[in-house]
Design brief:
six-stranded antiparallel β-sheet, 4 helices, alpha+beta, single chain, 118 residues
């Protein structure tokens, strides 16, 4: 059992299934990502840096890819509620796999760029 498995047992089955889908996408795109609890939420680190997190709330779900992916992909996220680094969605209007993959790709590139410049 991982920290994310433990978290998923505390939320509704439907929310857990949706967050499990996102988890699977993260592992597909970044197999070396490690599962963590970050900022009190289940998430992932890549090369020791924050990659993405997600959480279940009373009336929505959120993914937290950071400010850059949210800004870069804002034209594709118009139908979702956004705030800096956060995208809210529902089970009725989930994020498409392709969009989640794009967010993760942007975040990985951002991390790699920062690590190369150090």
């Amino acid at each position: 059992m991982t920290v994310i498995d433990t978290y998923l047992k505390t939320i509704s089955e439907a929310d857990a299934a949706e967050l499990e889908r996102i988890r699977d996408i993260v592992h597909e795109v970044v197999p070396e990502a490690t599962e963590v609890i970050t900022y009190g939420m289940p998430g992932f680190k890549y090369k020791g840096k924050y990659l993405v997190a997600f959480n279940s709330f009373k009336d929505h779900l959120s993914i937290f890819p950071g400010a850059k992916p949210t800004a870069v992909l804002s034209d594709k996220l118009g139908e979702y509620k956004l705030s800096k680094g956060t995208i809210q969605f529902t089970l009725e209007k989930p994020l498409p796999d392709s969009l989640i993959k794009e967010m993760i790709d942007v975040r990985v590139a951002e991390i790699d760029s920062k690590l190369q410049s150090v």
